[in-house]
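Example record for the data management plan.
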Amino acid sequence: MGKPEATSMKYELVSPENFTDAHRSFIDTFRRSIDVLSSQIDVIAGAKDIHSRHLIATDAYARLVGLAKGADVTGRLDCEMPCEGTARFADCHIREDRELLSHRDADSTKSILKVYEYSDGLKALVFDKFVMKHDASHSILGIIYQAHEVDVSHLFALLPNYALEFGSGSLEKAHLDEIIGRANLTEYEYEVGFLIAMNWSVGQISRFMNRYRPTANPRVADTIYKCKDRICEKLGIDDCRVPVLREKLLQFGIHRKMPRSFFHRILGSRQL
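Corresponding structural encoding:
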């Protein structure tokens, strides 16, 4: 279930009704592999078509969404799952899938932290998604997903007010070249912008960054204000007051795309 091998060619999206015999054989082979995997270990994994309808799922995924067996998931959209958390955010899942597929790049991937009320309680799961490619026909048949649980307390330890501000939902890992409002922020600017969107004060941000991103000269409130002004300049915002910038950043959805370093920390990495 690893990342697909690199390829530079753009692949074509193919709907199930247009599957060839070769496509169907490929799906059947993948389904048998998933069935064997599901019978031996408790792994959350599966695949969807390009319209986000489930093609295959393990029994562990089925139980997560309130069903008994992986076969019960086949043919369903997320909005049709018994699990209230999955059904509630179905539109969000479709948007994530479409963003991944829109590049028609067989190497595209996404990592998303989902904090939902699943069928067996509140959980934090990291879903890794990548395209399901059929190399022989240069086709993309859908999306393969796999997931693992992380301690939800790691999120709340890093961002204690996240649930209060935004509730449950999905947090995607931002790319290094993430574009916010047509502006390519540096990694540091993105981190500061994200924390502004979290409704942190400049004092809180400077203390946090000094702890996790120490520099020779410790940051003070003025350091963060200068960074805030650079972000405003890149975004073309004339009114650089923090509340104005925060509102703009929320409009761009930065609160749903977590900086990579923060994401790794929640997963237990020492990178931050």
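Summary line stored alongside the record: Residues 12-150 form a domain with the Beta-Lactamase fold (CATH 3.30.450.20).
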